[in-house]
Write a structure and sequence with these properties.
The protein has a four-stranded mixed beta sheet with strand order 7-4-9-8, with helices on both faces. It has a three-stranded antiparallel beta sheet with strand order 1-2-3, with no helix packed on it. A three-stranded antiparallel beta sheet has the order 6-5-10. By secondary structure, the chain is α+β, with helices and mostly antiparallel strands. The protein contains three helices and ten strands. The chain is globular. The protein has two domains: 20-55, no CATH class; 59-197, Nucleoside Triphosphate Pyrophosphohydrolase (Alpha-Beta Complex), CATH 3.90.79. 18% of the residues lie in helices and 38% in strands.
C-alpha cells in the first residue's frame, strides 16, 4: 500500500476482476433486478467456487433540506422487512442514458412533489458488495419549492406513502439511536453531518 506525502495510507477502492469460468442466470425478467451465479477462481488459479450476484443498475437518493434545516422524509411499507420504514426520496437508474442527478430530480418530484434549485453530490456508496453490484448516489437538494407530480401516479405500496418534515438534529438523533435503519437514509444523514461540520457544504 502506497504512502502519500501526508504519511497516511492511501485508502481507496480499485478496479479488479477475477477470472469467471462460467455464468448462468438464476432469475431474469423485465424488471430491473436479476440474479446470476458465477463460477470464479483466484487470479493465480486454484479450486473454482460459486458466487451469487444480484444485478442492479444503481439508484439515486435525495437528502432534501429546507430553509428551516428540516429534512423531507417518506414513510412506506416495505414487504421484505415487514415494516413501515422511514426513507428518503429515491429511485432506480432504469432509463438508458439517464444520469443519477436526473433520476434524483425525477424522484423528488414524483414521490414528494418538490423541486430544488440547488443540487450537490453528497456521497456514493456500494450497498452490499458481497452479493450485489448496486450503487447508490446521494444528492443534497436545497432551495426547495412545492410542485406537482405531473402525470406520475402512485401505485401499490406507494399509494400508502406518507411525507413528513423532520428537523435535521432530531433525525440525526433518530439515526444514532437506531430508531430509523434504512441504509440510504443513515448514510446520507451521517455524511451530511460530517461534511457540514467540516464546512464542505
Amino acid at each position: 500500500m502506497s504512502e502519500p506525502s501526508s504519511g497516511r495510507p492511501d485508502i481507496r477502492d480499485t478496479d479488479e476482476s477475477w477470472p469467471v469460468l462460467s455464468s448462468r442466470d438464476i432469475h431474469r425478467d423485465d424488471w430491473v433486478v436479476a440474479v446470476r451465479e458465477d463460477t470464479i477462481t483466484r487470479p493465480e488459479g486454484g479450486e473454482p467456487f460459486d458466487r451469487l450476484v444480484v444485478e442492479h443498475p444503481g439508484a439515486a437518493m435525495v437528502l432534501a433540506i429546507d430553509d428551516e434545516h428540516r429534512v423531507l422524509v417518506l414513510s412506506q411499507y416495505r414487504h421484505p422487512v415487514r415494516e413501515r420504514v422511514y426513507q428518503l426520496p429515491a429511485g432506480v437508474l432504469d432509463e438508458p442514458g439517464e444520469s443519477p442527478l436526473e433520476v434524483a430530480k425525477r424522484e423528488l418530484r414524483e414521490e414528494a412533489e418538490y423541486a430544488a434549485a440547488s443540487w450537490t453530490p453528497l456521497i456514493s456508496y456500494l450497498v452490499s458488495p458481497g452479493f450485489t453490484d448496486q450503487r447508490f448516489h446521494v444528492f443534497l437538494a436545497r432551495e426547495l419549492s412545492h410542485v406537482g407530480r405531473g402525470d406520475f401516479e402512485l401505485e401499490h405500496e406507494e399509494m400508502d406513502l406518507v411525507t413528513e418534515w423532520v428537523r435535521f438534529t432530531d433525525l440525526l438523533d433518530d439515526v444514532t439511536a437506531g430508531r430509523v435503519e434504512d441504509g440510504g437514509l443513515v448514510t446520507a444523514v451521517l455524511a451530511y453531518n460530517v461534511k457540514s461540520r467540516r464546512g464542505e457544504l
